[in-house]
What we know:
The structure is a single chain. By secondary structure, the chain is mostly helical. The protein has a single domain (2-342), classed as Up-down Bundle (A middle domain of Talin 1), CATH 1.20.1420. It has helices at residues 2-9, 12-22, 27-56, 58-69, 71-82, 86-112, 119-143, 151-178, 194-226, 230-242, 244-255, 259-284, 298-315, 322-342; strands at 115-116, 319-320. It has a two-stranded antiparallel ribbon with strand order 1-2. α6 (86-112) runs antiparallel to α14 and α7 (119-143) runs parallel beside α12 (259-284). The model has no long low-confidence stretch (mean pLDDT 84).
Amino acid sequence: MARATFWVSLALTPVTLVVHYAFGVAGTPSFVLSAGALAPLAFLIGEATEDVAEHTGPGIGGFLNASFGNAPELIIALFAVRSALPNVVRGSLAGSVVSTALLVLGGSMVAGGEGILDRSSLLLQIGMVLSAALCFLVPSIPGWHGNPERHELYVLTLPVAAALLAAYLALTFFNLRRHAASHQTDPGEDARSLKDGLALLAAATVATAFVSEILVHSLDAFGHSLGLSQFFVAAVIVAIVGNAAEQGGAVVIARRGNPRLGAEIAISSSAQVALFVTPAIAILSFLVGHDLPLSFRPVELAAIAGAALVVGITVADRRSRRRKGIMLLVLYAAVVAAFGFAGDR
């Protein structure tokens, strides 16, 4: 039943494209359709990378999963940069880090219940998120006075982004070398062929690009129609939609009796956004015509750092418990409220 619902929901993609390009529908209806279409596309990208991983082995497969799992968010952000919406980009990135750390981990703990966590791995990755938040202070503090989009701040951003990206790539290279001996693969009977998996991955990514452009162009109208700030829509709604694959996958896996893997997915996704997606977008921003300084607002940095500290304390005893998950969900609700009160600049 769930599988059938998933494939039916994929029909939202052609419906969204036809409604927008053929009939010129924009505004709130366009936003709702594109947001709904992105969720199954995100799951499809995640499924396709898993199929490819069956043939390439765990090292390369893990790298592909990390890269393409965040493809929707990366694409949404680049379209927002091109549309000169820097607040939307920074808001969605900060919201993604926080939602995967609090909402997804909390949901995984509630769904999975009691279990043992990989404390060393989780603390290392959440420590990297906290380090990224501290690094973001370099271009952010000067941005709290004067124009936060000025070119000098982009100049300050570049070495910070390069350092974070280098740290992520170094860790990825380490993991690839660690799995270098895993050349022998045994694809499961249900796995697609490598050719089909790559074709599906490419098709889903292209479709995501078109739908993401529609989402970004309709975001402002959607926010106005509901009386929501552009920042709130980006930091909460767009962030959740862009991470649909990780969010759904982590909770489902935890519910199936593997809260350890669910927690790993949630925190690794948060770290990937902070150390890979965010600096990559900043470095690539000049290619789409607008520099993107990583000059985050105090509320964004406080949310990222606070989420990292709370998660670090939560996983320190290596135990997954439902009451911990509920606490994280309540904390995320508080962050959402803070984002709502913060408004736009």
